[in-house]
C-alpha cells in the first residue's frame, strides 16, 4: 500500500512534545542459531492466522505457521458472542455496512467495510462447510442474535456463548488433517522477536524464539518472501483486560520497529460488561457477552435505575463505546466502582442453555446470573487500530501483511461493531491468501537477504511490566487528558531509559518491551487527537470535533529511530446522528 503517513500532515504543534520519542530497530536477542525457509511465514493461530495458512497452503509451495504458545491459546478461543454477517434473507450487506459505519463514528474506510460485509456471508458459510457447528433451530437454520449497534439479528453463534472456541476447533482440526503434508509446517511455542528486512526495507522473514527440540530450538530465523502477522491484540498493555495473557502487542511492536505504519492506536475498545471482581483485580477478566443484553438483559445502577434508556435510542444495545461511556459516567455519579447487569428475568433454564460458559464461570466466582445482579464495569477488550493495511492486507512495508486484531484495515473506525472481529479476520485472511500467490506469480515477492537495521537494539526488564500496565491504565486508559497522558509518557519514558544491561533477553522480557513500545506510541497518538470519538475519550476535549479530526492518525519509526506522527483527513463517511 502507499504510505499514508507520507501524505499526512505532521501534527507539528501537538506532536512537538513527542519529538524525542524513539524506538529501537530491534530487540536485544542472541544471533539466530538456525534458519528455516518458506514462501510465507504466518504468525499467529487465531481465526486470521489459521485461515490464511490453510488457504495459502493450497496456493504456494511452503507455508510456515508459527504461534506463541499452543494453537488454541489466542483471543479467538475466548470470543463469546459470535460472528456478524448478513445471513438472514431479510438482512442485507448494506444494512450491515450502515451499522458498522455508525459504530465507527465517521472514520471507517467504506471500501474495507464493503469488502467485509459483502464477502462475509460466503466466508461464514465456508466455515460451516468446513465443519464449524454453529447453533441452529429446529429446521436446521442458523440461529441469529443481536448485539450492541446492530439493528437486526445477524450474529451467528456456537455452543451458545463459545463461538470462538468452536471456530478454533474446526480450523485446527482442518490443520491437523494436512499437517503431515510437506507444504505446511507448524511450530508452537514460537515467539516472534523481530521482523527481518533487506537493504531496501522489504520484509523477508522473522527472528523467533522457539521452545522446541532438535535443531529448531532457541533463537532462529525464518526466511520468506512474505510474512503475515496475525498476532492479535495488545490488551495486556492495561492492568485489566478481557484478552488472554498472550495478547502483548508483539506483532504491532515488531512492525513498528521495522518501520511499518501504524494507524489509530488511540481507539481502544473497552467492553461495557466485564464481571467486576473487586478493586485491584488484574490480568484477564471474565467477559459477560453483549449477547446477554441482546437476549434481553439490561443495566441498572446501584439504585436499580435503568440508565441506558435516557442515554441512547437503542438503550442497552447502543454501540459499545456509548454504553461503556454511560457506565463510567454512572459509576462517577453514584460513587460506585461498578453498575449491575440484570439477567434474572431470562430464567435459569434459558441462561444455562444459551450461555453455558458464562453461567458456569459466574457461578465459579460466586455469582448466579439466574438469581443475582451481576456487578460489571468496562475493561479493555479490543484494539481497533493497528498495522495499517490496504484491502489486500498489505502493510506499508513490502512483503509484510497483517490481518485480524493486529491490523488496521479501516473497518472498525473509532469503535468496532460487536462481532465484526472474527469476520474481519476471516475475510481479510482470505484476501491475503489470494494476493500473495498472485504477487509471487508476477515475480513481485522475491526472497530477500536480511540486512542489519542501523541503531542499537533495546530491551526492558520484565520486572517493569506491572509498572507499564499501571501507567497505561492511569493515564492512557478509558478516560484520558493531556495531563494524564503527559504523565504516562514521562513515566514510560523513564522505564525505557533504564539501563538495558539489567534485563535478561527472553520471552517475558521481549513481551514487556513490546508493551512498553506500543504503550509509548499509543499514548503519543492519543495525545494528538484532541477530541472524544469512539474508543478515545478525552476529559479535556469531551466533544467530537469533525472539523479538525475526521480522519486517521499515523505513526511510523523513521530511519533515525524517532517516531513521526501525522494525521490524514478523510471525507465524512455515511453517518447518522450519535449521542
Ligand atoms: C461479546 O460477546 O460481547 C464480545 C463480542 C465482540 O467483542 O464482538
Question: What is shown here, in short?
Answer:
This protein is α/β, with parallel strands linked by helices. The chain has helices at 4-7, 12-15, 47-57, 93-103, 110-130, 163-178, 250-258, 290-294, 320-334, 348-354, 356-364, 421-441, 465-475, 482-497, 507-528, 546-549; strands at 9-10, 35-37, 40-43, 63-66, 83-84, 144-145, 155-156, 184-187, 190-197, 203-213, 216-223, 226-229, 240-241, 262-263, 268-275, 283-284, 298-300, 339-342, 374-383, 386-388, 400-402, 407-408, 551-557, 563-569.
Report on this model:
With 579 residues, the chain is α/β, with parallel strands linked by helices. Among the domains are: 38-195 and 212-267 and 382-441, FAD/NAD(P)-binding domain, CATH 3.50.50; 271-378, Flavocytochrome C3, Chain A, domain 1 (Alpha-Beta Complex), CATH 3.90.700. It contains 16 helices and 24 strands. It has helices at residues 4-7, 12-15, 47-57, 93-103, 110-130, 163-178, 250-258, 290-294, 320-334, 348-354, 356-364, 421-441, 465-475, 482-497, 507-528, 546-549; strands spanning 9-10, 35-37, 40-43, 63-66, 83-84, 144-145, 155-156, 184-187, 190-197, 203-213, 216-223, 226-229, 240-241, 262-263, 268-275, 283-284, 298-300, 339-342, 374-383, 386-388, 400-402, 407-408, 551-557, 563-569. The strands form 6 sheets. It has a 6-stranded mixed β-sheet with strand order 1-24-23-14-20-22. A 5-stranded parallel β-sheet has the order 8-4-3-12-21, with helices on one face. Helix 7 crosses helix 15 (507-528) and helix 13 (465-475) packs antiparallel against helix 14 (482-497). It binds succinic acid (SIN). Succinic acid (SIN) is lined by residues 80-81, 289-291, 382, 418-419, 421. Residues 80-81, 289-291, 382, 418-419, 421 line the site of succinic acid.
Amino acid at each position: 500500500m502507499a504510505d499514508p503517513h507520507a501524505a499526512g500532515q505532521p501534527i507539528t504543534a501537538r506532536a512537538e512534545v513527542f519529538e524525542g520519542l524513539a524506538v529501537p530497530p530491534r530487540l536485544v536477542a542472541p544471533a539466530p542459531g538456525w534458519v528455516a525457509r518458506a514462501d510465507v511465514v504466518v504468525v499467529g493461530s487465531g481465526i486470521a492466522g489459521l485461515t490464511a495458512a490453510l488457504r495459502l497452503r493450497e496456493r504456494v509451495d511452503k507455508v510456515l505457521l508459527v504461534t506463541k504458545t499452543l494453537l488454541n491459546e489466542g483471543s479467538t478461543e475466548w470470543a463469546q458472542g459470535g460472528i456478524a454477517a448478513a445471513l438472514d434473507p431479510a438482512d442485507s450487506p448494506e444494512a450491515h455496512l450502515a451499522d458498522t459505519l455508525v459504530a465507527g463514528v465517521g472514520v471507517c474506510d467504506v471500501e474495507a467495510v464493503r469488502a467485509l460485509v459483502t464477502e462475509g456471508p460466503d466466508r461464514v458459510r465456508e466455515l460451516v462447510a468446513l465443519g464449524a457447528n454453529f447453533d441452529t433451530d429446529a429446521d436446521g437454520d442458523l440461529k441469529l442474535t443481536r448485539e450492541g449497534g446492530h439493528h437486526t439479528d445477524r450474529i451467528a453463534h456456537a455452543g451458545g456463548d463459545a463461538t470462538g472456541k468452536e471456530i478454533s476447533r474446526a480450523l485446527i482440526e482442518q490443520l491437523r488433517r494436512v499437517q503431515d503434508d510437506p507444504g505446511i509446517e507448524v511450530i508452537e511455542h514460537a515467539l516472534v522477536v523481530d521482523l527481518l528486512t533487506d537493504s531496501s526495507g522489504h520484509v523477508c522473514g522473522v527472528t523467533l524464539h522457539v521452545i522446541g527440540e532438535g535443531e529448531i530450538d532457541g533463537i532462529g530465523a525464518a526466511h520468506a518472501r512474505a510474512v503475515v502477522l496475525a498476532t492479535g491484540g495488545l490488551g495486556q498493555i492495561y492492568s485489566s483486560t478481557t484478552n488472554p495473557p498472550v495478547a502483548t502487542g508483539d506483532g504491532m511492536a515488531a512492525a513498528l520497529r521495522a518501520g511499518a505504519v501504524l494507524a489509530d492506536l488511540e481507539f481502544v475498545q473497552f467492553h461495557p460488561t466485564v464481571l467486576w471482581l473487586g478493586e485491584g483485580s488484574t490480568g484477564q477478566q471474565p467477559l459477560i457477552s453483549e449477547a446477554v443484553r441482546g437476549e434481553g438483559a439490561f443495566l441498572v445502577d446501584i439504585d436499580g435505575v435503568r440508565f441506558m434508556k435516557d442515554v441512547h435510542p437503542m438503550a442497552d444495545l447502543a454501540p459499545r463505546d456509548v454504553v461503556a461511556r454511560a457506565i463510567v459516567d454512572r459509576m462517577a455519579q453514584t460513587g460506585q466502582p461498578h453498575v449491575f447487569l440484570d439477567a434474572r428475568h431470562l430464567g435459569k433454564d434459558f441462561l444455562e442453555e444459551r450461555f453455558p460458559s458464562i453461567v458456569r464461570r459466574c457461578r465459579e466466582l460466586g455469582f448466579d446470573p439466574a438469581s443475582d445482579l451481576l456487578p460489571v464495569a468496562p475493561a479493555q477488550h479490543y484494539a481497533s487500530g493497528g498495522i495499517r493495511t490496504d484491502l489486500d492486507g498489505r502493510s506499508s512495508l513490502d512483503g509484510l501483511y497483517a490481518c485480524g486484531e493486529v491490523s488496521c484495515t479501516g473497518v472498525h473506525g473509532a469503535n468496532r461493531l460487536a462481532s465484526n472481529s472474527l469476520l474481519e479476520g476471516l475475510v481479510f485472511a482470505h484476501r491475503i491468501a489470494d494476493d500473495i500467490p498472485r504477487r509471487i506469480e508476477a515475480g513481485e515477492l522475491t526472497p530477500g537477504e536480511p540486512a542489519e537495521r542501523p541503531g542499537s537494539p533495546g530491551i526492558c526488564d520484565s520486572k517493569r511490566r506491572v509498572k507499564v500496565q499501571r501507567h497505561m491504565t492511569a493515564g492512557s486508559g478509558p478516560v484520558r487528558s493531556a495531563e494524564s497522558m503527559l504523565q504516562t509518557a514521562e513515566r514510560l519514558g523513564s522505564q525505557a531509559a533504564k539501563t538495558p544491561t539489567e534485563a535478561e533477553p527472553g520471552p517475558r522480557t521481549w513481551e514487556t518491551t513490546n508493551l512498553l513500545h506500543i504503550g509509548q506510541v499509543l499514548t503519543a497518538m492519543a495525545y494528538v487527537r484532541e477530541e472524544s470519538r469512539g474508543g478515545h475519550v478525552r476529559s479535556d476535549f469531551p466533544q467530537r470535533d469533525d472539523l479538525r479530526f475526521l480522519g486517521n492518525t499515523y505513526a511510523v519509526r523513521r530511519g533515525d529511530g524517532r517516531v513521526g506522527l501525522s494525521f490524514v483527513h478523510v471525507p465524512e463517511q455515511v453517518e447518522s446522528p450519535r449521542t
